[in-house]
Specification:
about 150 residues; elongated
Length: about 150
């Protein structure tokens, strides 16, 4: 019985914070008072520890500037650089893509080639999907901060 409880506790420790408990683990916690109380104590302890670490630190304090300088030096040493592309470049590229779509569709209508219309539509549809995927992927931190996603 002890080995079984240990395996269930190992499964609990393997879960991420706020991750849903698997059904078998939930059933075990309902049946085993020892494991249930351990999980409850661990959860309360984690909440208490995280609450105590929420105190505000001034951004210009020595510890913060020291940590930032260490991180900055580490980024330079590893050649980690994050070049951001301005929104004007994204807008210009999107407008250029839209204009190309309109011109090519008009050209396809004038030539009255259904095969050309299909291939152009398919190509530009794929281009829009790739454009949107790159835009969201490269600007993910902006979207997370904008909508405060945790």
């Amino acid at each position: 019985m002890e080995k079984k409880c240990e395996s269930y506790m190992d499964r609990f420790f393997a879960l991420d914070k706020n991750e849903r408990l698997p059904l078998s683990l939930t059933l075990h916690l309902l049946a085993c008072k020892k494991c249930r109380s351990s999980v409850r104590r661990l959860t309360l302890l984690e909440k208490k520890c995280s609450r105590e670490n929420l105190r505000k630190i001034k951004a210009d304090s020595k510890s913060v500037s020291g940590i930032m300088s260490l991180l900055d030096g580490e980024c330079r040493r590893c050649n980690i650089s994050r070049k951001s592309v301005s929104l004007t470049h994204w807008s210009f590229t999107g407008i250029l893509l839209l204009l190309c779509m309109i011109v090519m569709e008009l050209l396809a209508i004038v030539t009255a080639s259904e095969l050309m219309m299909f291939s152009i539509s398919f190509f530009f549809g794929f281009s829009v999907i790739v454009y949107c995927a790159f835009f969201v992927g490269l600007n993910m931190d902006f979207f997370i901060k904008k909508w405060k996603i945790e």
